[in-house]
Structures are given as C-alpha cells and as structure tokens.
User: Fold this.
Amino acid sequence: MSERLGTTSHAILGLLSLTPMSGYDLFQAVDRSVSRFWPISKSQVYAELARLETTGLIDGTDVPQERLPDKRVFRLTDAGEQALDAWLDDGEVEDMQLRIPFLLKAFFGHRRPPEHTAGLLEVVRDEAADEAAMYASFLKMLADAPDSEYASIVVLFGLKMAQAFAAWAEEARALLPAHQFRVDPRRPNPRTAPALFRAAPARQPGRG
Assistant:
C-alpha cells in the first residue's frame, strides 16, 4: 500500500484487532478507551473506515438486524494486520501531543485577578482527583479480568497523570501573585516577553 497511514488510522486498525465492529460500535469503543489520550471524532471514525476499506486493510460486511436497518461490520484483513504490526514494530516514539486548555488559561492569567486562576486550579484539582478515583477503580477491576495486562498499563498511565494534575494544581496555587499585574499589549518596545520567548527551550530543537 503506497498511502502512508497516520496514528489515527493505526488506532482504528488496533481496535479492530480486538473484535470486529460496526462504525457505531467502533466509535463507542474509541470514546471509552483511546479517546482519553488520542481523541478521534465520530466523523473521523467513519472517514477512516471508508478509507481503510478502500485500501483493502479492512473488510466490511452488511449484517441484517431485526426491526433496524442493516449494519456494516468491519474486520481486519491480512493486509490490515500486517500494516498494524509493522507500525507496532516501528521503534520510533513520536513527540507527545498534549492539548490542555486550562494551561492556556493559566498561562494568560495576567489578564484576570489571581483569584480567578485560583478558582480554575481548584476545579482542575477536584476534577483530577475524581479522574484518579475512576482510574483506580477501573484498574482494580482489570486486575481480575483475563488478558488485561496491556489495558492495565494504559489505565495506570491515566491514574498517574490524574494524580499528577491534582498535585500540580495544589502546588501551583502557592505560586500565584498576591495582586494582579497587567501587561499592556500596546506598550512601546516590550523587552521581557520577547526575551523569555527566545530563552525558553524549543519543543523541537534544531527545527525552523
């Protein structure tokens, strides 16, 4: 196959390596598993299914249902298994791509009073603590499930991340300034921000 597959394509192939699924079932599986660390929208799921079937990596079969329209169930082909395994065998570790909106709000906190960011951090802390409890409960359930070691590895990551977020939010509150300071974007000859941007480490050193 000449077309290069992205991470989302491999995620779909990976989920279908567990069990054949319809598009609806596959999106439900995405929503309850990989979406926590690799979000895939419903439209992306169906677009990927159409593309992967066209390339021969999956095969769809129409299955009749009582009192419901027929559903199309997809399964991996031999070529799909080979493509998935080739990706898994690739030793390359891609850069993490985290999108965390509340960090953006914290970064631009100079626009609001400190108590506004303090409230944001409290929400983050409480929600992260709830997430940690959820992951801990799920990890305990997986301990009794057969062949769940690899799922446990990923759930453990979620647990540790949630715990880290909760601890960070609590520690970050102590760093907030006592009073709001304002940065005028219209000030002439700004020096501090440009200097800090130049001094900060680049995410991808040597590029650009």
In short: The two ends are 31 Å apart (CA to CA). Strands lie at 21-22, 58-65, 68-76. The domain at 7-85 is CATH 1.10.10.10 (Arc Repressor Mutant, subunit A).
